[in-house]
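Please fill in the sequence for the structure shown.

STRUCTURE ENCODING:
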């Protein structure tokens, strides 16, 4: 079973990760919660966020750079698969 890990504890791994800001939005598009997700690149963070979506729209940011807006309906399209080396 694949487990999504919030913190990476491998030595030297933190230097390879980017801390992305994830905004959880209500039906009106207002921010109702935020979280930080660490991932090595945009594609990986989007896979991780899709796998954890809770039926609300989400925006992903890398500092001031907008990455993606995901509608609640996007949650079924996660491509994270067992055996994927997302840390590369």
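FILLED IN BY: designer on duty
SEQUENCE:
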């Amino acid at each position: 079973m694949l487990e999504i890990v919030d913190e990476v504890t491998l030595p030297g791994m933190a230097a390879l990760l980017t801390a992305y800001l994830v905004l959880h939005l209500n039906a009106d598009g207002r921010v109702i919660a935020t979280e930080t997700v660490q991932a090595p690149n945009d594609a990986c963070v989007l896979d991780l966020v899709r796998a954890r979506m809770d039926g609300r729209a989400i925006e992903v940011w890398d500092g001031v750079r907008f990455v993606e807006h995901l509608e609640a309906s996007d949650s079924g399209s996660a491509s994270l698969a067992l055996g994927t080396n997302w840390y590369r």
